[in-house]
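Methods, example record. To illustrate the input and output format used throughout this study, we show the complete record for Peptidase M16 N-terminal domain-containing protein. The sequence lines were provided to the predictor; the line carrying structure tokens was produced by it.
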Amino acid sequence: MLGFFRDIRTLSLVDSLPRFGLYSKGQLEEGNSGGIGFKRPKKEILLQHNYFFTSRYLLRARTMSVTKAVSSLDDVVVKSPNDRRLYRVIELENGLSALLIHDPDIYLDGSAADGEKTDGDQMDEDDEDGEEEEDSDGSYEDDDDEEMEGDEDEVKEKGDHQTKKAAAAMCVAMGSFLDPPEAQGLAHFLEHMLFMGSTDFPDENEYDSYLSKHGGSSNAYTEMEHTCYHFEVKREFLRDALKRFSQFFVAPLMKTEAMERELLAVDSEFNQAIQNDACRLQQLQCHTSTKGHPLNRFAWGNKKSLSGAMENGVDLRECIVKLYKEYYHGGLMKLVVIGGEPLDLLESWVVELFGDVKNGSKIRPTLEAKGPIWEGADLNSFISVVRSQIYIEALCHGNLSEDETINISNIFKNSLTVEPLPVKCRHGEQIMCFPLNAKLVRDVTVKNRSETNSVVELYYQIEPEEAQSTRMKAMLDLFHEIIGEPLFNQLRTKEQLGYVVECGPRLTYRVQGFCFCVQSSKYGPIHLLERVDNFIKDIETLLEQLDEESFEDYRSGMIARLLEKDPSLLSETNDLWSQIVDKRYMFDFSHKEAEELRSIEKKDVIEWYKTYFRESSPKCRRLAVRVWGCNTDMKETQTEPKSMQVIADAVAFKSTSKFYPSLC
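The corresponding predicted structure is encoded as:
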């Protein structure tokens, strides 16, 4: 992913860190970032020699004099008196600096801190030397078995206690500014290639599969001056996740055959982004910058810029390996690890797993950026316009008493003349009720005549929220957890349909559904829908062949995710506010869903799938929306089977349809 437009909400690790200041003992300096990847707060910390990727800040410290394998600083972070976390900055002999964070809330029962057996207490049974440690049978799988059994017992013992995930992020101080002119987009392409297997874990899907299996996720992005990789995972599996993660920076394979496939993924990402106006403006800024300036380049990269380079005699793999060897070294790497284990244990993991990262120089230039050209006072004249159209719906929570909350609400009531909207004037959100066994299709052409992307979104309507809505939501989420990664692996990695391949629950005004979506500039909508349909038919086999251990991994991972403690007050507010918007008012919804998950078995998921996704079932009701790109011909629909009902006139179709009662 190119960093300009990433969704910052994916950085759960980053969001969990404090917005800290720094001691001003000549150690650290404050300034503005020189990167253009995204707008940064004014109080951002400027890097002088070393980068520490923490929260949404980059910390810059003067070079520490280190002679031992590890040096430690425990007083770098200025934190709130209410912050129970412990912090330590270490530096390895290879120059890599790491911020280690012990969060006691990750293990609420203190099990990790008390020295009980965790994932990290076991040595690597699958090291190359094959050595076996005492009390270990040398089996990686058995290691996971023990962890999962312990996790299941812990979740049951904890009851409704909220849990948090462990996470890590690595920031490498190199980005698209270092792309060679003959292969623009190379840094972004390199980011993609590091996910394609390593010497110790050659399976291209191993890293993502491991995280998905253990309640985690990962992502990465490339900006102009740095590249960031990050993941989160269920707390017990931090060490093994770090082991796989560390190989990105030690021994990635970057195989030629993987390059050919991933080049298509980069091209699909570009074709997706080029339709976004923000992306277009960002690239226009690059294109119109001064010739010779590092910004004057094509940072995204696509098939033309990268594959075209090979046609011009450039050895793309050689360029990637050269870029990696030159800049992916400890001197330019800053790591953050947050877990529930003691700092000493986290430190030992980082030293062991990242000690093999290549050594290198740390010297980097200092760059500064100017602040915004406008002030908040410039908007004062617009206040009266806002007030004339305002209505108020409020939520107060956190460190407030009931009396304080009432006083705050009275301030708004007394200062703003707003009357409640009569019930009869409120808009009722009604959702169409698909008929039994509906197989609907809506075809539309792109409005932009140069748009080459085609899209298929397949929506399955399940049920409106009723008494059993919590169980239905649990079933939807667990189903998504199980099939999400196989869908991506099959349709994007193997079949290379396009960059966008995704699925997930769809809640529309409290009517539950499930969606599959594929976007492609290479294939037309009919082919895309056929491939999605083929995958959906194979889900039954996938579920039946899923062993009980793997099913329990998915289920316990979902439970742990639902019971995670909100990483911030903003996150908690969003969860509570969604209950108000939907008029559900179940402020402990995640706890109730976790309880429902404990009673769901594999056979329940299979029967649920047969009820709502098997074509022969009356409750299988679906709508396929097919968007035809400019390079496709809608006449292909004339040869399709007549079993589908084509919606030629959407307005006429709605006028003859039934609707669910308004639920919100």
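Annotations derived from this record:
The mean pLDDT is 80.
The longest strand covers residues 454-464.
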